[in-house]
Amino acid sequence: MTDTRPAVEADAVDDTSRRAPGVPERLLGGADHTTIGRLFIVTGLAFFCVAIIARLIVGIDQLTDNGLLGSWLTMVSSSARVFGPLSLVALILGVLVVLVPLQLASPSIAYPRALALSYWSWMLASLVFAVSVGFDGGIGGSNTEAARLGSLSMGLMLVSLALTAVCVATTVMTHRPEGMGLSKVPFLSWSALLGSTLWIVTVGSAFAHVVAGQVAQADASALAENFLNGIAWMTRAPAVYVMVIPVLGIAIDLVSSATGARVKQYGVAQALLAMFAILSFGAWAQLDRSVNTLLWTLFALGIGLPVLGVLGLIGDLVRRGSAKVTPALGLAVVSLLLILGSVLAGLLWSLDQAGVGTLFGFNLRLLGAAQVTFVGASVLTGSLAAIFHWAPKIWGAGVPTGAAGTSALLVAAGGGLLATVVLVQGLVQRNESTTATPFFGALTALAALLYLFGALGALVAFRSSIAASDAGDTDDEPRGETLEWAFASPAHADRVPESLPAVTSPYPLGDESSASGDGEVA
Questions:
Q1: DSSP calls for 168-221
Q2: Residue 375 lies in a domain
Q3: For the purposes of burial, counting CB atoms within 10 Å of the CB of 505, is it exposed (0-12), middle (13-18) or buried (19 or more)?
C-alpha cells in the first residue's frame, strides 16, 4: 500500500477513446425488454411467413393430386402446423414482453438476461427445426437423424418460450407499483399472467415426451408415434387455447382505450379471463380415450362462454364510448370471433365422439387441425391489433392507416378462410376419404396467399413506423388511462416517467386527469 496515488502511465488506456457499442453488440449483448420484445415480434412474424409458405406448397400439392411433395406431404403439413403456432406464440410473447412492464411502470422485466437467453435459443432452435424439415425430418419425416434433430429443436423451442413466459409472469407478480393489487392490474397484464402460467405448465408436460423420445433413441417412425401420442394433444382442445388467453386481455384493454370507456364490472371481466384459462388447461387430456369423456365435452362446450362474455363487455364499451373504427379495433373483434370458430370445431368433435365410437364419422385429424388453425389466426389478428394500437410505444410512431388496414383485411380473410377450409374438409372427407381434394387444395393455396400477403404487409407497416420514429415524427398523444401511456415514445426501459400518479384504480391516468380538472372520467 502507498500513501500517494501512483502516477498514471503515459501509455495507459484512455476510457473515453473506446468505441461505443454498435447495433450488433447492442442486440447480442443487451437485455432491454423493449428491444428483445421487438425482436420477438419481427422474428416471430417472419418465421410464421415461412410456415404459411409451407401451407401454400401443401395446397398446391393437393391441387396437383400429390404431384409436388409426394411422400413429404404429411411431414411438411404436420411440421407447418407446429412451426407456425410456435412462431405465433413467440409473436404474442413479444407483445407482452414490451407492454407488460410498461403497464406496470417497471423499469425492467423480471430476469432480463434470462429473457435475452430465451430469445436467442428460440431463434436458433427454430432455424434448426426448419433445416430438419428440409432433410425429411421435422414432424413425421422418414430420415431418423433429421427427425431426431427436429424433435430436439422442437423441445428447445418449447422450453425457450416457457422461459420467456416465466419472465412475463414473474413481472406481473413482483413488479407492480405501490397500490396496484392484482385486482387493479390492466387486462393485458392480467391475461399475460394467466396465459404465461398455463403455458409453463403445459410445456412441462409436453417436454417430458420429447425427452423420453431422445432417451429411447427412437427411430423416425417411433418419433412420429411419440409426437402423436405425447405432444399432439397441445394442438387440440382444450390445451390449444392456452396460446390465445392473452388475446382476450388485449381485446378488452384495446377497446377500452379506443372508446374512452371503462369496464364497469372489472372483477367480473377478470373472472371471465380466469375461467377461460382454467378451461384451457389440457395436460389431463393427452390420451385419445380422454377425448371420449363427459369432462372433455364439458370443457369443449364451456370454453365458449367466457369468450361470449368478453364480446358482451366489448359491446358495452362500444355502446357507452365514442369508438372510431380502426384496423386495430376491427382485428380485436375478429380475433374473438376466430376463437369461437375453434370452439365450433371442438363441439363438432365432441358430438362425433358421443357415446362409444363415432357418431358421424368426421375426420377428427382435420377437426383438430381446424382448431389450431382458428386459434393461430386469432393469435395473429390479436397480436397485430395490439401492435397497431400500441405502435407509438413499441416503434415510436403510429402505423400508416392504409398499410395497417390492408394488412388487417388480408390477415383476417386469409386466416378465416384457411381455418374454415380445414374445418369443412374435416366434415366432408369423412372416414379418411379424399373427396374433392384438389378443390380444397385450391382454396388452401388461395387462403395461404392472402395470409402471407397480410403478414408481409404488417412487416411493411412496422418498417414505416420505425422510419417515422427515426425521422423524429414520434407520437406521444395519450390514448388510454393505463400507465403505459405515460411513457415517452418509443418506450425504453431507462425512460420510466419521473412522476406517476398514485394507483388507486385500474385507470390511474384517468383518475389523475379527472382530479386535475383536465378531463372527464368515461
A1: HHHHHHH-PPTT--GGGS-HHHHHHHHHHHHHHHHHHHHHHHHHHHHHTT--HH
A2: yes
A3: middle
Number of domains, the chain = 1
Q: For residues 103 and 189, is the Cβ–Cβ distance under 8 A?
A: yes
> Grid coordinates standing for 366?
382435420
Q: Could you tell me the residue range of the domain that residue 339 belongs to?
A: 30-510
Residue 11 in any domain: the answer is no
Q: Is 29 exposed, middle or buried (0-12, 13-18, 19+ CB in 10 A)?
A: exposed
- For the chain (length 522 residues), average pLDDT per consecutive 10? 54 51 59 88 96 91 72 83 94 96 91 94 95 90 90 94 96 92 94 96 90 86 87 89 96 93 93 96 85 84 94 93 87 96 91 69 86 96 95 89 94 95 89 79 93 95 89 72 84 70 85 51 38
Q: Cβ of 287: how many Cβ atoms within 10 Å? A: 11
Between CA 441 and CA 437 the distance in angstroms is 6
Is residue 245 within a helix (H) or strand (E), and if so which, with residue range?
helix 245-259
Separation CA 148–CA 146 (nearest Å)? 5
The total of other beta-carbon atoms located within 10 Å of residue 96's CB is: 33
Contact 379, 419 (CB under 8 A): no
- The string over 476-485, giving b where at least 16 C-beta atoms fall within 10 Å of a residue's C-beta and e elsewhere, is eeebbbbbbb
Between CA 454 and CA 437 the distance in angstroms is 26
Under a CB-based contact definition with an 8 Å cutoff, are residues 514 and 507 in contact?
no
Is 224 within a domain? yes
Prediction pTM value:
0.91
Residue found by looking up cell 387444395 in the block? 441
> Does residue 159 sit within a domain?
yes
Cell numbers given for 169: 409472469
| CATH number of the domain bearing residue 231 | 1.20.210.10
Which own/partner contact pairs does 193-196 have at CB distance under 8 Å and 24+ positions apart?
193/168, 193/169, 194/245, 194/273, 194/274, 194/276, 194/277, 195/165, 195/242, 195/243, 195/245, 195/246, 195/277, 196/96, 196/165, 196/166, 196/168, 196/169, 196/172
First to last CA, the chain: 69
CA distance 308 to 22: 49
DSSP-derived secondary structure letter, 489: S
Count Cα neighbours of 8 within 13 Å in the Cβ-side half-sphere.
5
Q: Which three cell numbers stand for residue 483?
A: 400507465
